[in-house]
Amino acid sequence: MKVPSLRANAIAATLILSAGFALVFFYAPLDADQGFIQKIFYLHVPLAMSSLAGFVAGGICAIAHLRTGDPRWDARSYVAIHLSIIFGVGVLITGSIWAHASWGKWWVWDEPTLVSFLIVFLLYATYYPLRYAIEDRDRQARYASVFAITAGAFVPLNFVAVRMAQSLVHPRVFATANGGLPGSMLLTFLVCLAGMALLWLALVRFELAAKSASASLSRLRRALEGEPQVPAPGSRVAPGVPSSATSVT
Amino acid sequence: MTAHSEARAQRRASSLVALRAILVKDLRVELRTLQSVPAMALFAVTTFVIFRYGLDRQSLSGGLAAGVLLATVLFAAIIAVNRLFVAEREEGGFDAIRLAPVDGTALLGAKAAALVIYLVVLETIAVPVFALFFLNSWGGVPPLAGVLLLADLGLAATGVLVSSMAANSRARDLLVPLVLLPLLVPVMIAAAGASRELLAAGGPSYDGVAKWLAVLAFYDMTFAAVGFAVYDYLLED
Prior knowledge:
heterodimer, B: mainly alpha, 83% helix, globular
């Protein structure tokens, strides 16, 4: 199977996401209850879904890393978690804005999905201090993978526990009981979701490409200065990526 | 029995021997040096006093009682988790395990068992003190043991993983609370949910306790399985 280039991926993300936002403002109807502010749903939920899927993808790459010992999988796991954390900041900010508009408070503890997301976010935020506290490169990569797998198993468990702790659950936009989302809203949402997922993927591939480029640059520099080809020990640069890591781009 | 399964059975038996040996070693070290458990107990009792003034309450019940007790146990557990691999790190125990012809999971199992034992000892001291300080009736205390035991198993499963990662890093004392606390949020949710009912003001009630025990058991099994699956990678060098 031929993987589309990073450029094609980025263009597709831009086009679909712009189309999605055009649909949000000019096509999707106003929500009867919440009015205009409900439109943040088309940003908040795709961000959250891409971010959670990214955490899971990071865990899967970590499994592949432990099984094969290939550092490229570690780099993919790292970048997937890195971008999901950045998306996670967006989720918490948009969620907070939505909460303020709907319930008059910037933070509500009885919205289980948002609370679960905060806990997951707090856990993944410890990925960096853990990773960079380990000096040996191979061990750093292995421990980071063990963390990514543990945290991946934690995500669904945590969602279940938080949801069970809720005495009452807020009405949701995805109200499955009374017929779900109207078609026009669902279409808009799906376009936004596809756009956001493509954006996440494009950013991941961009970061991997950038890492591999800077790794080959420093390798070339060292070769030019006639130094032996050894990586600097304890370097704080995120995982060393062999130049073939992003052969897909 | 085929040769293959015989070899596997032998390997398992040697792992169990190693597990027992490490566990007995740990308990003996703890009995001789008294490094972890007395510190945890002292910490727990002092924390109860802190809560007494922080909350300005002389007796507790329901959610408040569950929260004070479990938060104290959780934070006291961090002391033990921090110290769990100190000897292995300082005296080369990790290398010895790598050289020995046994599964790394023997170390995992032994350390988890040691942690559970420390926590049970801590709780047999801290829970009566807590009841003496704050509870009006002792009716909810015996069933609380089941909740605490399941919580201890979960704490041990995640604690051993985090502790062995932190032991081989530069920022070990910092990493354990940082990484462990978010991982323990579901344990806190479920254990507090069950204890709240057991410590209710009007005597223990069993509403929804079974549900929370199921969540705790599920948590324990999930992270025990994750630990067994990944632990060998933490020992490789």
